[in-house]
Every structure is written in structure tokens, then in C-alpha cells.
Amino acid sequence: MIAEHTGERAILVHLDGHAPDVREDPYEFQELAVSAGAVIASFVSVSRHQPTARFLIGSGKVEELRQLVLVEEADLVIFNHALTPSQERNLSAALECRVLDRVGLILDIFAQRAQTYEGKLQVELAQLDHIASRLVGSRKDLSGQLGGIGLRGPGETQLESDRRLLRVRVKQIKNRLEKVRNQRELARRSRQRAEIPGVSLVGYTNTGKSTLFNLLTESKVLAADQLFATLDPTVRRIEVPDLGAATLADTVGFIRHLPHKLVEAFRATLEESASADLLLHVIDAQSPERDEQIKQVHTVLKEIEADDVPMLEVYNKIDLLDHVDPHIQRNAEGKPVRVWLSAQCKQGIELLQQAIAELLEDEIYIATVRLTQQDSRLRGKLFDLNAVQQETHADDGASILALRVAKVELDKLLSREGMSAADFFAQYTHR
Question: Strand ranges (DSSP E) for 161-260?
């Protein structure tokens, strides 16, 4: 795993005994910490079925942690769970060091990874939202606002000044993101007007989406064995066999209990998935947490209203499994539902392309047309388009052409010829 270590020594605290629907993965937690650049000084697993309101964990365990912080000379303690603002403050005071929860940890990784203007704005918005809930003041801070003789203050307190500045900055970021969102929507509408089908990669973080994206698009998007290697959305044009042009989008990876703040902040990015014609759900085939990861992806897709978009499951990393070769699984109707491949070893990519073409075949015209000798110009253009699968000739010399062509390509050709697809097939369909 690649990580730029900050030199901060961290003690990781994981609560065991939680209900299955809220339990976190301790191994994923360690990967997150390393991805953020922490040096793991110690990993502490706490058995706790009933979290406490003050510390989340018991006071005895807090004292043990305080001693461990001193022994390990730790800079911070990270909890693999969401902490309330008061729990974070209480723990920080008791442990006499910085305390971070799972949400703050993920936000920090996002802040490091974001590269584009949009990505940085999205991360900052989520961070400010997180910080705002942790701004607190004592009774002394508020005394200037209580009113009454001797209690009227000179103006707003530092706390209220901080909150006001936060509100101003949040408003600025939301306005800028709205402009970016509108630009993205215009780009999507432009692609839809051109009738170019859209395909979007989705999946749990670190399942190999970017590696697969690079293979399909011949690009060089960062693909690393680390959580959240890709944050910023990337859209490229690809050529689908027997279909023609399509767009492929690589999006941010999902994670168990992805903080709602991040889902909201990255909504403009995730809408690339909601507006797609086909989702490629990339799955780590060898992960012991595979089923849970699939469940988490479906949860996020439902939240961004993309759960009704047609989906093809892509089981990646089969090179790490025994006796599994690249293959396509089909449903009772014969349609592809699952492709097994290895992006790292470049095995099964042609099967994935075939499955994509089959699932997007609604975007293809398949027909047999009859053109007379007077239509030789049109016949030549159909051949130039590679639309003709087979040609035979009638007794009167007419050409009988078996066509298979992407709708977008034929529509462009017919538009230049001054006719619509409906007119073309009504006039030339061979019966």
C-alpha cells in the first residue's frame, strides 16, 4: 500500500461487539489509517455492546488509553466509529491528545486525494460541515450576548465570529459547486443529444475500478493499491464493439457507512452514475468482505437514486482465486449479468466489452434494407460506416444489405442525407 507518512503516531481504537448493521471492519480501519499517512503505534480492540454517552467506551478503558498514549508517545487516537462532538471533546481532554473519529479520518484522506477544483470544493464543504458541529463555547464565551446591566458585550464573541465565517464560506462553496453542477449537467445533455450511451464504473473502494478504466480507455488515471486512490470523476470516450462510441466514467469508490456528509458533497460527481445507461459494478472477487461490500454499494446507489439503472457486475481480481477463468454469467433470458476477469493481468477484458455491447444493444440498429442502383451513394456511405454485415443481390440488381450499426452513427449519416431513421427504414426495409 502506498502512503505518504506524516510521522504522526496513532493509536487505533476499534469497538467489537456492535450489532452487525453498525459493526466496522478492523482491517479496513487499519488501511484507512495508513492511507491517511498515520504510523500505527498500537491497535486496541474494545469489547463494548452498550456504548456510553460520555466517552463511547468505559472510563476504565479511557484510563488505559491515556497510559498507552504516554507510553507510545502517540500524537492522536483514532476511533473506528462516529463520535458525537461531546464524546470527541471529552476523550481529547481525558487522553490529553487529539482524537479523531472514522468520519474525520475519511475526510482527511479525501482532502489529501482531491486534485481538481471541484473535488477540493466538495471535500472542503464536507469538512466545514463536520467542523461546524464541533464548534462550542463556554458560558463565559456567551456572556457578551446575555444582555442586562454590566453584561452587554462589545459585539459578537469569537465563537459566533467563527460560526459566521463558516456560514459565509459554506455558502460560497455551495454556489461554486452549483455552477460546476450546472456545467456537468450541460455536458451530460450534450452527450444525450448526440445519443452517445453512457457507462459508469461504481464499486467499493480499492476494487480495481481505475485499473479497469485505464484498460478500457487506454488512459493513465492513477490506479494504486490504496483506499480512495480516485476521488475526482473522469469521463473518457470509448469504442464499444458493434456499437460505436460511448462514454465511460470513473467515480469515487464507496465504503462501508460512507458518511452522509460525503454523499451529499459528492452528489454532483455521483450523478454521473445516476444518469448512466449502464453501471459496471466492480467487485473484489477475492475479498472476504465481498458480500458486505456489495450491500454497501447498493445502499449508496439507492441514496443517489441510481438503483434502477441497468447494472453489470464485474468480478475483478480472479487472478487471486484458484481455478477461476474469465467468463460471462448469463440470466435465464441469456443476458449478461456478471463478468469474471482480472484487470491487473488483462484477462477477460474482451468478454467485458462483449457484455457491454450486448447490454447496450438497444442503442444499435439491426435491419435488412434494399437499395436500388440509384442509391449507390448511400450504399457506399453505409459501407464506409462499417454498418454492412453482409450483402447479396436481387435479380433486378438491387443490393440487399444486412445492417448492424450504432444508432448515433447512422442517425448522423442520415441527418447529413436529409432524412430521419424512421423515414429511412420505412423506405428501404427489405420485406
Answer: 198-203, 234-240, 244-250
Helix axes 349-359, 209-217, angle to 10 degrees: 80
Cell of 329: 454469467
Cell numbers found for residue 356: 457491454
DSSP state of 232: S
Instruction: Give residues with Cβ within 8 angstroms of 33, minimum separation 6.
Output: 10, 12, 40, 78, 105
124, amino acid identity: E
Provide the residue ranges of all domains of the chain, joining segments of one domain with +.
Answer: 9-100, 196-359, 364-428
CATH: 3.30.950.10, 3.40.50.1820, 3.40.50.300, 3.40.720.10. Which one for 196-359?
3.40.50.300
Assign a CATH topology to domain 9-100: Rossmann fold (3.40.50)
CA 59 from centroid of its chain's CA atoms:
39
pLDDT tens track for 390-402: 999 998 889 999 9
**Single-letter amino acid, residue 389:** Q
Grid coordinates given for 45 = 480492540
Give the 3-state secondary structure of residue 5. coil
pLDDT tens digits, one per residue of 108-154: 887 887 777 777 787 788 788 878 777 764 444 444 444 444 434 45
- CA torsion sign, 121 to 126 to 127 to 132? positive
Phi, psi of 5 (to 5 degrees): -70, 130
Q: How distant, in Å, are the alpha carbons of 45, 63, 107, 130, 133 from that of 84?
A: 20, 20, 16, 11, 9
Contact 311, 302 (CB under 8 A): no
- Nearest partner of 123 among 259, 223, 2, 243, judged by Cα: 259
Please list the ranges in the chain whose pLDDT falls under 50.
1-5, 137-153, 222-227, 229-230
Sign (positive or negative) of CA dihedral 56, 79, 24, 16: negative
Same fold, 9-100 and 196-359: yes
Q: State the amino acid at position 403 in one-letter form.
A: L
Q: What is the pTM of this model?
A: 0.67
For residues 274 and 244, the answer to whether their CB atoms sit within 8 Å is: no
Query: What gap in Å lies between CA 371 and CA 148, rounded to an integer?
Result: 94
DSSP state of 70: H
Nearest Cα residue to 416 out of 376, 363, 377, 389: 377
Which amino acid appears at position 135 of this protein? L
DSSP state of 339: E
